[in-house]
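Feature request, filed as a ticket because there's no other form

It would be nice if the structure record came with a short human-readable summary line next to the tokens. Right now we just get the raw output. Example of a typical job, pasted below so the devs can see what we mean:
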Amino acid sequence: MKKGIPFFRQDMVIEEISDVANSYIESEWRSKYESMYEQLTAAFVEIEDAAYGLYLDQLMPFIFEQLEDAGFSTMEKLEENDFVIANRLIFRNSLEKWGAEDNRSRIFWNVIHDKQGNPIGTILTEIPHSHLKFDIPSAPVIYSLRESLKERIVQGIRRIKESG
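Raw output as currently delivered:
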């Protein structure tokens, strides 16, 4: 993988996908955060948590585009009232239950399908954030689960958050 560019192959397992995605985030998240900080701090005053969506709109789409270029499917059928961040993160497919007000954790999930349409697992996108002011206290993190059913995904998220 060239620095900053995620490289996905159709034969990857879900854990390899999350490793590559995390390498990309690790190389990109802080520079995007710092370059957008003033704009997003001002936006937070007006739109509160939605400012984090503006940040994810800049950070995450490239990962999903690279996955799709490699032949994976990352998106489910949208419902009429869906709210989508970063072109692929559906708000109804997320949980926010952990952390203090100045370091909350929201986790989105995307079931990943191969070229034949078979689910290979789920990637979880965790965005740490503050409800008190615009602040991302640490890098977003991608986790992987072998699950693809919502109930099992939710159990997997709880297992990750409550054991960590």
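Something like this underneath would help us a lot:
The first helix runs from residue 14 to 47.
The chain has one domain: 14-163.
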